[in-house]
Amino acid sequence: MSNQVDTPSSSTILTPPSTAVAPGGDRSTKSSFGAESAMSLLVESLKDRLLFAVPKKGRLMEKTLELLAGADIKYNRAHRLDVALVQNHPIALVFLPAADIPRFVALGSVALGITGQDVIAESTHGDQISELLPLGFGKCKLQVQVPVTGPIQTLEGLSGGTIATSFDVLARELFSGENGLDKKVMEGKKTRVEHVGGSVEAACALGMADGIVDLVESGDTMRAAGLHAIHTIMSSEAVLITSKTPHPTLTPELSPLIPLIKSRFAGVLAAKRYVYASYNITRDNLPTALTITPGRRAATVSPLDEEGWVAVSVMVERKEVAKVMDELERTGAEDILIFSLDNCRVGV
Ligand SMILES: Nc1ncnc2c1ncn2[C@@H]1O[C@H](COP(=O)(O)OP(=O)(O)OP(=O)(O)O)[C@@H](O)[C@H]1O
Ligand SMILES: O=P(O)(O)OC[C@H]1O[C@H](OP(=O)(O)OP(=O)(O)O)[C@H](O)[C@@H]1O
Q1: Nearest-ligand number for the alpha carbon of 217
Q2: Which atom of ligand 1 sits closest to the CA of residue 236?
Q3: What spacing in Å lies between the alpha carbon of 201 and ligand 2's midpoint?
Q4: Ligand 2 lined by 215 (C-beta under 6 Å)
Q5: How far is CA 28 from CA 33, 38, 44, 137, in A?
Q6: Which helix (H) or strand (E) covers residue 55, if one does?
């Protein structure tokens, strides 16, 4: 990925579009407006709204849009326009490249954002960012990779050579010994860091670099290029962020939207993570069953209209559900039912 955090994309927020959007998200063409009118209309429509930056493309976009839908944040986005007014809240979504979002948030241009922890770490404004909620998608690792069959197989061996990457800041930090590595080994040699905007994995085969620093999820890209990882710089996932310095336009009316959005997102994520289980069991077997399904706080246990039996309702992690059902069955549980959750509030 291209990661030029200090060079905001040419796609600026308020570029006057040929098709303007009237307040309220009307998609009609306003050909009678000039660029200036379109711009002032847009600026006017952003007044008294919380500005929320979301990835406009790439790996984080789709899941972010799903999260917004799950949180009932409704909007119309006009063709080619990077701003969309939310219909049911005083919020405007601003669609930006993920790598630019830390900068816009840190500088107070927008109040909230969604981006990857990797681009926050790479950003020179990273220390001004506060992470409000991990979002459970966009999970990947930033790794140092070298050709599997090459002569260099260690970080120490790479130091003094050439590294290709979109993560220049983190790569330089690593090879200058600022990242917990042996400072003496790294500092002695000058490692060249070459910026590459994408397809970083091709750099070694093309003879441009001895190693690369790039993101890895499944590892397919790395393996296909004949590379393997020799060091992990960091793990990353998408996060909801705000600035450590309160946003200048955050009025008492808009401020409560931040905890509201965080709480709605947490509910959507929890509903994906958990299922609701219910089963019947004898009182004798209840203590064992509760060790299998302790619940988030505690299970709800209600007496059944049959002597010696109780009904249990409890939340269970979705990924554990098959194993939990097997164990409950072995413990004598009957009528085990699993329900998917549409949404929930279970505490952040
Ligand atoms: N393979 C991957 N698996 C999971 N998450 C990833 C992966 N690659 C990137 N990401 C996450 O998605 C973010 C955006 O990466 P992506 O490459 O989609 O950026 P982009 O905005 O489309 O930029 P570019 O056009 O330069 O590629 C990364 O910063 C990282 O947090
Ligand atoms: O481990 P994997 O699952 O194969 O994913 C890793 C790849 O994903 C990202 O690139 P992306 O596909 O977003 O394209 P890019 O190279 O143009 O940035 C990253 O830069 C790797 O190349």
Answers
A1: 2
A2: 31
A3: 9
A4: yes
A5: 12, 13, 18, 35
A6: strand 50-55
Specify the pTM. 0.83
Q: What does the pLDDT average to over 296-323?
A: 94
Whether residue 59 has its Cβ less than 6 Å from ligand 2? yes
- Per-residue burial over 96-106, b if 16 or more Cβ lie within 10 Å, else e, is bbbbbbbbbbb
All structural domains of the chain, each given as residue ranges with its CATH number in brackets, are 35-138+238-255 (3.40.190.10), 140-236 (3.40.190.10), 274-340 (3.30.70.120)
Interface confidence, given as ipTM, is 0.95
Given pLDDT bands bounded at 50, 70 and 90, which one contains residue 6? very low
Read off the pLDDT of residues 57-103 as tens digits, 9 standing for 90 and up.
999 999 999 999 999 999 988 888 899 999 999 999 999 999 999 99
| Residue owning the nearest CA to atom 30 of ligand 1 | 116
Question: Which ligand places an atom closest to the C-alpha of 213?
Answer: 2
User: Ligand 2, closest atom to CA 199?
Assistant: 16
Kindly give the distance from the C-alpha atom of residue 114 to the centroid of ligand 2, in angstroms, as a whole number.
19
